[in-house]
């Protein structure tokens, strides 16, 4: 799931990819943490350690605190920064375990690079961050939107390092199939817009990578939270077919996991903003499952 309606893209369709639609507005993290002030204040009073980590020629902003296992690692939506997990208290809600949030390349206060990259690159960089910051495995990964897809890809790449996933209105490998429902002219425009995303991610190549990687993570407990509300579908899109395809893809994705749970939530795309307690509860459940499995 991608939100492309950010402050510098307000003249284009503002679409959370494939069925869950939002209005043209800045993201919650952009409003809350664009200046870094609120997050910095929180960090100063709750023990978060801010680091600059070399992820392969560029530096990423990483915030971690605490100890205890399993660790919790947050992945942001496309173009978002780590503030999306701080503004409603989701990241600070787990003071007794090791918790990390970070800004991917071309987001937040991390470095900007001109070259395009894919989800595999982001997965590799996250793994390096975990090593440099001494964040031990196993880990529970919590990902929103495109970050949910990356979390699942990380689990498929390093299954022994992941003990649970919480995916908040995530992008799915099957998203590319749903594009075929859109009339050709609108489809070409929408796909081109996706490729002009602020992170310079090759989105469709990442979906192809995810098709291979995600099935390697199916033994891991997963909780998928899917939003049910959004704005109007752009003119010319077959709204009912797109929404039905999205729900079908969510069910099929979750069914791959023997310990998978799918919950539809009365919320817009940013569930962690509208219903933070629900997201916190989902993380707590996955933590409990992970702890029970390790006994």
Automatic annotation (TrEMBL):
<dbReference type="InterPro" id="IPR000073">
    <property type="entry name" value="AB_hydrolase_1"/>
</dbReference>
<dbReference type="GO" id="GO:0016020">
    <property type="term" value="C:membrane"/>
</dbReference>
<dbReference type="InterPro" id="IPR029058">
    <property type="entry name" value="AB_hydrolase_fold"/>
</dbReference>
<dbReference type="InterPro" id="IPR050266">
    <property type="entry name" value="AB_hydrolase_sf"/>
</dbReference>
<feature type="domain" description="AB hydrolase-1">
    <location>
        <begin position="70"/>
        <end position="180"/>
    </location>
</feature>
<protein>
    <submittedName>
        <fullName>Alpha/beta hydrolase</fullName>
    </submittedName>
</protein>
<dbReference type="Pfam" id="PF00561">
    <property type="entry name" value="Abhydrolase_1"/>
</dbReference>
<keyword id="KW-0378">Hydrolase</keyword>
<dbReference type="GO" id="GO:0016787">
    <property type="term" value="F:hydrolase activity"/>
</dbReference>
């Amino acid at each position: 799931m991608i939100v492309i309606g950010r402050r510098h893209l307000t003249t284009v369709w503002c679409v959370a990819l494939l069925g869950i639609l939002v209005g043209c507005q800045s993201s919650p993290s952009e409003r809350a943490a664009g200046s870094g002030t609120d997050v910095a204040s929180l960090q100063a009073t709750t023990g978060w350690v801010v680091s600059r980590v070399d992820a392969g020629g560029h530096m990423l902003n990483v915030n971690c605190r605490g100890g205890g296992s399993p660790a919790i690692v947050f992945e942001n939506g496309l173009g978002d920064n780590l503030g999306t997990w701080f503004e409603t208290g989701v990241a600070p809600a787990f003071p007794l375990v090791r918790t990390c949030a970070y800004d991917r390349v071309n987001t937040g206060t991390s470095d900007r690079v001109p070259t395009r990259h894919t989800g595999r690159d982001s997965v590799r960089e996250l793994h390096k961050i975990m090593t440099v910051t001494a964040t031990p495995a196993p880990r529970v990964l919590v990902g929103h939107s495109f970050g949910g897809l990356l979390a699942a890809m990380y689990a498929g790449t390093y299954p022994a390092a992941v003990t649970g996933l919480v995916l908040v209105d995530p992008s799915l490998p099957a998203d590319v199939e749903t594009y075929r429902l859109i009339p050709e002219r609108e489809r070409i425009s929408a796909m081109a817009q996706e490729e002009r995303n602020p992170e310079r991610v090759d989105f469709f190549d990442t979906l192809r990578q995810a098709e291979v990687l995600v099935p390697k993570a199916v033994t891991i407990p997963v909780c998928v939270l899917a939003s049910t509300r959004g704005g109007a579908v752009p003119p010319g899109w077959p709204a009912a077919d797109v929404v039905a395809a999205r729900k079908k893809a969510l069910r099929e994705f979750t069914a791959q996991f023997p310990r998978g749970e799918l919950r539809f939530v009365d919320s817009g795309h940013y569930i962690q903003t509208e219903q933070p307690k629900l997201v916190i509860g989902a993380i707590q459940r996955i933590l409990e499952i992970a702890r029970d499995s390790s006994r």
